[in-house]
Fold this sequence. Notes:
This protein is 6% helix and 50% strand. The protein is mainly beta. A six-stranded antiparallel β-sheet has the order 8-2-5-6-10-9.
Amino acid sequence: MARTITTGGAFARRFADRMPYTITVEPWEGNTNDYGEPTYGASVTLQCRIQDRTRLMRDAQGNERSSTTTIYVAGGPLRVEDRITLPASHFGNANRPIMNIANMDDRMTFDHAEIYL
């Protein structure tokens, strides 16, 4: 069953002028194909803000690592297993693995996600 990623919402309306980029997110479907590779659903384009800033944090397995990029996304909720593609205007590898994700809500429903690469 395909997972739904919401787009827009209150966060997007409040901060649209501060989210000049778009990323492509392919949601992980929770299974693998015949070759043992992960399978992904249909891609979704989301508005975002990309901030290059180094910070020490823990990855999804609890290991201490250095995050060099934070992406504030007007959409989600997202998972660490999802695959993202950064815009061509951003330097470095466009398909970096996700280190950790913080899915935020506004006390009523999902609001936005913060992706740490």
